[in-house]
Amino acid sequence: MLTLHTTITAQISYSRDWMGNTVAKDKYGNTIATGSKDWQGNFVWKDEYGNVIQTESKTGKGTQKSEISMAT
User: Fold this and answer.
1) pTM tops 0.85
2) How far is residue 63 from each of residues 13, 47, 48, 57, measured CA to CA in Å?
């Protein structure tokens, strides 16, 4: 039996844009996602087209993540 293990690592850097949003970029400088707070105070990650990828809300027990996958 042949077992193959592949490890994929991504170099992601984070910065702020001129509006104060958190911007995630790959090692080539391409924007992967942009994070900001919505009107309820939840932190929302969006892709480069503005589609919601993930919402993070704080509860009394910690941070709760709600992931949304987009079908293409």
Assistant:
1) no
2) 22, 21, 24, 6
